[in-house]
Design goal:
With about 290 residues, the chain is mainly alpha-helical. The protein contains 12 helices and no strands. Helix content is about 75%, strand content about 0%. Keywords: Cell membrane, Membrane, Transmembrane, Transmembrane helix, Transport.
Amino acid sequence: MNNKSKSFWLFLAPSLLGMVIVLFIPLVTGAYYSMTDWDGNKIEQFLGLGNYLQAFQDERFLSSIWFTTKFSIVAILFVNIIGLGLALLVTQKADKLNNLFRTVFFMPNLIGGIILGFIWQFIFIKAFAAVGDATGIEFFKGWLSTTNTGFWGLVILFVWQMSGYIMIIYISFINNIPEELIEAADIDGATGWQTFWKIKFPMLAPAFTVSLFLTLSNAFKIYDQNLALTAGGPFDSTQMVAMNIVNEAFSVRKMGYAQAKAVIFLVIIAVISVVQISITRKREVDL
């Protein structure tokens, strides 16, 4: 091994050690515990795949997976559409207010999820109720008391929090589009929509890959906002997977069973992420 190789591995060693300690060892340990009846203190029995078989028959767990999937699809769609729209808005002709708007749109991402949940809980319950009482419009009454309004409440909260963050990603790619292409389109008489669809949109393909991955992973693992906004109610109908796993581990004290659910959840997210990245990467090449 030459000196260059030695220095390479020397600099890489701290990162590899960190990954082993933080990722690999907990993953292996968790996989082992998922096949036991561990309650947080001791293991009395090795169950093999028993916890996994039980999880696939657990209606509450399967319901939380379905609810999380629906939420993720809708939230990812809205976050990327609004994030891209905001990016296009603040990258128009030079405007002194653009930087101010970027800051304002990004600020919700700086607020913790638990705080956001309580803020929007107040808005949906107190503010909406006041508007409903003043106007007599039933739409504003009883928010978060049903599965449907709880679902859309979570979507609104997540979109409000993530759109500014995704906007920054799109801005970085929009700013790298050669001005010559935009000017050539203007000279040829292209409309704003034609310029966006034929020039900007294809060149934003790498941004879509990054943004979809980030929104997908964040939407699936959401917990703080779910806890603060609805706490899974009513009757666990808005309970997402992360909350289901946490409740199983710390409320019921079935940590081995909860770990099996976590492993299943990890596999689901990994498969979806790999499929998403492969599809969007292929589109980048096609474009």
